[in-house]
Design goal:
Helix content: 55-70%
Number of domains: 2
CATH architecture of the largest domain: 2-Layer Sandwich
CATH class of the largest domain: Alpha Beta
Distance between the termini: 101 Å
Radius of gyration: 40 Å
Strand content: 15-25%
Number of helices: 8
CATH topology of the largest domain: Nucleotidyltransferase, domain 5
Length: about 250
């Protein structure tokens, strides 16, 4: 096949053929990109043919023909190798993206399983107590949130001169009484007092005499809820109840 015919054939394919099978196999490439690759192959054929003709000019006709045919084949072979290399790179990229999609799908499926296994949201009770002096002017605070996260009750009570731990228990009792009065059955309780939470769980003993009646009352109230849990949270996650306990002191609620 002559140089002109081979280059023209490649350009004709680049301009007119839809190449559906090629696009189906190499999905990382669109039709425009394939056309550019084929045109580049045609340009390479012409460049090599021109170089071959110039190098063979001083020699005889038969020698020129043999040299010309050799370079045509070499150009076609090199162009095919370059095209195949590009396609292989595209295949590797497709495999990488496929692996990423699979990993993403696996993570989403795991997240969905975790969400399905997670119990439905319940009412939340945040409690706190504050004492300025310990003992000193004290206040108890409690805030109840709906399962949707909306505030449904904000409570505060001034406690005169008392300790911080006394105020913490009073905040809990204040919130539990209101939750029971609201008819709440399932409740998650949060307090930033590690002492209170661990005394209620039995991990710590109640040594202070003034706390024992409050501990017993809190346990009795907790037992009236069919589903309830008491958890410790950092202070920065208990700002609503902290605000109410301090407001109780400031405003003598």
């Amino acid at each position: 096949m002559s140089r002109t015919v081979l280059a023209d054939l490649l350009r004709f394919i680049a301009a007119n053929e839809r190449l559906p099978s090629t696009l189906e196999r190499y999905k990382g490439y669109d039709r425009d990109t394939l056309g550019k690759l084929i045109n580049a192959a045609a340009d390479r054929v012409e460049e090599l043919e021109k170089a071959a003709a110039e190098a063979a000019a001083p020699k005889g006709k038969s020698s020129l023909k043999v040299r010309k045919a050799s370079h045509v084949e070499q150009a076609a072979r090199q162009s095919a190798e370059e095209l195949e290399s590009a396609m292989n790179d595209s295949k590797a990229e497709r495999e990488r993206k496929k692996a990423e999609r699979s990993a993403t799908a696996a993570r989403e499926a795991e997240k969905a399983r975790e969400e399905a296994a997670r119990p439905p949201p319940r009412y939340q009770l945040f409690t706190d107590g504050a004492s300025r002096g310990n003992p000193g002017p004290s206040g108890a605070g409690a805030v109840i949130l709906s399962p949707e996260g909306q505030i449904v009750a904000k409570l505060g009570k001034f406690l005169d001169e008392n300790t911080n731990n006394f105020a913490e228990y009073m905040g809990l009792i204040l919130g539990l009484k209101r939750a029971r009065a609201m008819g709440i059955k399932e409740l998650d309780v949060f307090s930033d007092s590690e002492l209170l939470v661990k005394q209620l769980s039995g991990e710590y003993q109640v040594k202070a005499e003034n706390l024992r009646p409050l501990h017993d009352e809190a346990q009795q109230l907790l037992s009236t809820f069919p589903e309830i849990a008491v958890r410790h949270v950092p202070r920065e996650q208990n700002t609503l109840a902290d605000e109410m306990s301090n407001r109780a002191i400031d405003q003598r609620l």
